[in-house]
Every structure is written in C-alpha cells, then in structure tokens.
Amino acid sequence: MDIPSWLSAIGTVGAFAVALYLLWVQIRDRRSEVRDRRTAQARLIAAWLAELTEEPQADGSVFAELVVLVYNGSAEPVYSVVVKTELGVRGSFVRRPFVLGPHETREFRILSPGLPRGQPAISISFKDSSGRQWMRSSTGVLYEPLLDELLLQSTEESGAYEEHGHPTLALGQSVEAQRGQRVS
Predict the structure, then answer these.
(1) Is there a single domain that holds both residue 99 and residue 151?
(2) What's the CA gap between 7 and 11, in Å, rounded?
(3) Residues 12 and 101 in one domain
(4) I need a surface site. Which of 28, 63, 71, 121 has the fewest CB within 10 A?
(5) Percent of the chain that is helix, strand, coil (3-state, to 5)
(6) Which residues, 6+ apart, have CB-to-CB distance to 55 below 8 Å?
(7) Whole-prediction pTM value?
(8) In a shared domain, residues 61 and 130
(9) Pair 30, 91 in one domain
(10) Within 72-171, where are the H helices?
(11) Are 86 and 133 contained in the same domain?
C-alpha cells in the first residue's frame, strides 16, 4: 500500500470518528432536553420555613409556632401535595393541601410543644400535571421517590412523646389546618 492510500484510509477513519462523536453529542443533548422537560414544572414547587415564633401558653409553658409556606411557581396545578415538617424529638407534622393551583402560595401554621432543637426539616411530595410523582427533600434535592418514601412522607410521628400524648399533633387535623390558608 502506498502513502496516498494510507492517508486516504486515515482520513476516512477520522471522518467516521468525527461523525460518531457528533452523533453522540446530539443524543446526549436530546436526553438532556427530555430530562429538562420532565423536571420543568417540578423544579418550580417548593416548601420552606418562613417564620418561627414563641407562643406563651396559659400554663406558663412556651410553644413554638412555625409558619411553613408552600409555593407552586408553575403555570399548571400540582396534585396529591403532602408537606412534612420534622422537628426531631418534638415530632413531625403532615399537612395535605392536596392541590396547589398555578402560582399559588399556601401558609401552614404549626404549633409545636417547645422550640425545635435544630433546624426544622421541611419536605414536599406532589404529582406534576403529567402525573409524575416528585419529592423535594428538606435539603432542596428534587427526585422521583420510591413508594416507601411516599408512605413515610405521609406519616406523622409523635417524636419523644407517647403516641397519644403529643400536646399539639392533633391540632392540625381540621380541614382548614390540612389545606392551609391561601396567601395572596
């Protein structure tokens, strides 16, 4: 084989390698676009602690009132919404607004028996308008949860108190407390 044939073969192999690389880049970009479309609405849903105040009680004890805000920043509603506020030994409180409309903010007031010892952990689970289930953890990470994670998300816990001895856990059972108050 002479030199021109070798150069031609190298050029052909090089062109084939460049074509494969460009195809790989196109496939990677398409996957990224699909992932971005899947998470577009879910990235706009959040829950956070807006306020924490002390509430003196008639018996001299001090309870903490937490104000949790939940926001749907998307142009479509989200469904099966569950918000969980974990306060460690003070227990965990679950609120179920069920549906959040487009650009809607809800406020939940949670009365806790004493100030939390650490930062309250607030997580939210919901279904987007395409029916995909999502969860945003207390650290802000958005992911598609497993079934057991959804079951834990929906479960209130009494913390260090006896199961029926928690002083404020039952206060959030009314329809109004569960659905929260709309904030304009």
Answers:
(1) yes
(2) 6
(3) no
(4) 28
(5) 35, 35, 30
(6) 62, 63, 64, 65, 111
(7) 0.79
(8) yes
(9) no
(10) 147-153
(11) yes
Question: Of the candidates 154, 66, 141, 155, which has an alpha carbon nearest to the alpha carbon of residue 107?
Answer: 66
Instruction: Please report, as a single letter, which amino acid is at residue 160.
Output: A
86 and 16 belong to one structural domain: no
147-169 pLDDT tens trace: 999 999 999 998 888 878 888 88
Domain containing residue 22 = 1-39
d(C-alpha 54, C-alpha 123), whole Å = 23
Give 13-29 pLDDT, tens digit per residue: 888 888 888 778 787 77
CA–CA distance, 25 with 158 (Å, rounded to integer)? 52
Report how far residue 162's alpha carbon sits from residue 165's, in angstroms, rounded to the nearest whole number. 5
Location of structure tokens 């206060």:
171
Q: Are 8 and 2 in contact (CB under 8 A)?
A: no
Indicate whether 1 and 63 sit together in one domain. no
3-state secondary structure of 141: coil
> How many angstroms separate the Cα of 16 from the Cα of each of 6, 20, 27, 39, 146?
15, 6, 17, 35, 43
What is the C-alpha to C-alpha distance for residues 5 and 125, in angstroms, rounded to an integer?
63
